[in-house]
TrEMBL record:
InterPro entries: C1-like_sf (IPR046349), DC1 (IPR004146), PKC_DAG/PE (IPR002219), Znf_RING/FYVE/PHD (IPR013083). Residues 17-66 form the Phorbol-ester/DAG-type domain. One of its GO terms (molecular function) is metal ion binding. SUPFAM superfamilies: Cysteine-rich domain. This is Phorbol-ester/DAG-type domain-containing protein. It holds the Pfam family C1_2. Keywords: Metal-binding, Repeat, Zinc. It comes from Digitaria exilis.
Amino acid sequence: MAAAGSSTVQGTHFHPQHTLTAYHYSEASTYHCAACELVVTGVGYSCDGCGFDIHGECLRAFEAAGRISFSLHPAHALTLTCLAAAGGGHCCGVCERASPAGDYMYICEPCGYGVHPMCVVKVVSQQASQQRRGRGRRAMHTVGYTAHTVHRLVDLVITLAQVGACTIM
């Protein structure tokens, strides 16, 4: 990981307590993104004090979508939340995988429903694909969720909001 100039970010939703420094992560990186849990490559941010790492695009995308409505939980809005140590882990309503304290999830404050950020993206992406097929279109290629597709999250969330598959609040 090499420093990408002197770019720093202070007071983000993901890491409000420390300053994040921009770095260029190599293809051989072993650092995992706090938002999507994939390996960080290319431009990303790190907290030199505690080892927090995040893709640059994840930082921008999830900061912009800190509160969303979600089709699998239409009763309430979900808020991007860092799971507190005092509350223990939380189980995702989509993949049913438990997330420990310190991970990020979209949480329904009134009822406690939670979902991983990448699970939201996967579900909404699948719903948009089904809607497109219903209008006489057929996907020719399927792209897996790799670190490279993470960099398109902002465009994906905006596109999905335009087709009514999700709402950015």
